[in-house]
Structures are given as C-alpha cells and as structure tokens.
Amino acid sequence: MTLTSTARRLRRPMFRERRRETWYAIAFVAPAAIGFVVFYLFPAIRGVWLSFTDYDLFSSGEFVGGANYAQIVDDKVFWNALLVTAEYVVVNIGLQTAVALLMAVLMQRLAKSLVIRGILLVPYMVSGVVVALLWQWLLDYQIGIVNNALDFVGLPRQSFFGDPALAILTVAFINVWKSMGYTALLLFAGLQAIPKDVYEAAAIDGASEAKAFWRVSLPLLRPVLALVLIVSLIGSFQIFDTIAVTTKGGPVNATRVIYYYIYDLAFNRYDFGYASAIALVLFAILLGVTLIQLRLTRANKSDLA
C-alpha cells in the first residue's frame, strides 16, 4: 500500500464530513434565505418596476417611464407629508434621545437593577397598535384621564388628536414613551463599556460630574449614539401604526406622514405605480440622510482607540 493511497483513504471521511456539514448549513440558512427572497427581494424589485408603470390593481399596467416621478414634483400632498414627517422625526429623535440618555445615566449612577431594566422594556415589547389604543383612550377629549385631570385642576381640555397644532406632537410623544426604554438600554450598555479608569483620571484632574459627562462620557459614547440616531431615524420615517389607529392622517393632513401617504395611495386609491415611486424616493432620502449621519458622527471610529 502506497503512501498516496493511504492519504486518499484518510481524506475521504473528512470530505464526507465537510459535505454533510455543508448540507446542514444550507438546511439552516435556506428558510431565512427563501423568506428574504420572497418577502423582501422580490417585492423590492417588483416595486422598482411598478414605479415606472400605471398599475392600479385592476389592470396589468402600462409602462409610463418617469411620469410618476415627474408627478411627485407637483404633488402638494407629498411635500406636505414630507414636511410633517420631518417635523415628527426632529421631535421624536430629539426628545427620545435626550430622555433616554438621561435615563441611561441615572441607571448607571443610581440604579443597576435588572428589574428596572425589565420595566423599561415593557412599553417597547407591547404592540404599537395596543400602545396607540391605550393613549387614544387616555387622551380622549371627553373620557380621557389626562383631560379629566386637566379639568380637575382648572385647565382647559385639549383635543390632542383633533388640534392640527398638537396632533403630530402627540403622536411623537406616544412613540417616545414606547421606545425610550429600549434606547436607554442601548445607551446604558454603551456607558458600561467605557473603562472606569477614564473616569478616575478625570476625577484626579478635578473634573466635576457634569464636566466628566460632557468631556468623557459623550465623546466615548459617540459610536452607540450614532447607532441610536440611525435606527431612530429609519424607524421615525416608518411611523404608521400610531397614525393609522389615532388620526388616520388628520386633522387636515396634519399627521399625514409619508409612510401613511404611500399606504393611502396603494391600498385606498389602488395607485400602486405612484405609491411605488414615492416609496423609492423615500428609500433614496433615507439612504442619503443615513450616509450623512455616518459621516458626521464618525460612527466607525471610537475615541477609546
């Protein structure tokens, strides 16, 4: 028996084992891959095609070129929806990040209990529809607990969902309440990753608590803050459930955000071609803003290095 034949015999079981492991890996990956292709990739490609047609569910749709995109330029409802969305994004991200950062600092300094962290996650784990129904009842003009409390202390009742000046702010508040616990835990994890030696060095240099936070914690928290801002930005542009339950885009388009406008065009007016075009414009906006955020926040760099 030659050395070559012996080596071949030894390699055969190894090849069989590798082949078996490969099939196991394919079996585990296949369901997720099939789901991605069926529910994400194919609809995305079809959406791109539909954006160049006048498909309306009742006909096969004809190719119209860039007519749908040209229509966007003169669509006042689209520009109003984009403006309302921008207002919501600014309020939601600004308030949510500020409150979550405060909660994260308080958890780090005062309370590190697992029970408290679990309680903070409860609103985030609840369905968005349930949260919207809860706050719709709490803020109801006639029977809502909040308005009854205002009336009790002598303040006028407020139409939180019926007043154009308050509606989008109310929707933003609801989603801040729902998501701030999750955001706070992300920031808390980032604070925990900062070495204690850095704080000790700052204390030796005479830095106060406030100064250590602004000069040490915030700069070292930048990668996590960048992640939080990007995730919050994308989620804010996709706000739908709260508006669909509470205001349905009203009053007077005051809460008709871009996501709800796309839904209204596609599933109420059956104008899938135009809705797909707006969806692609929204994708381009999100991609551009995200890249700008990554560049400005330097998310891939840390001051700890």
Query: What is the element string, with H for helices and E for strands?
Result: HHHHHHHHHHHHH
Shape, please? Answer: globular
Quickly give the CATH architecture.
Orthogonal Bundle
Number of strands: 0
CATH fold-level assignment: MetI-like fold
Helix content: over 70%
**What is the CATH top level name?**
Mainly Alpha
Query: Structural class given helices, strands, pairing?
Result: mainly alpha
Question: DSSP strand (E) fraction?
Answer: under 5%
* CATH H-level superfamily title: MetI-like
Structure annotation, total helices: 13
Total domain count: 1
How far from one another are the termini? Answer: 58 Å
**Poorly predicted ranges (pLDDT <50, ≥5 residues)?**
none
Largest sheet: none
CA-based gyration radius: 26 Å
Mean pLDDT figure: 88
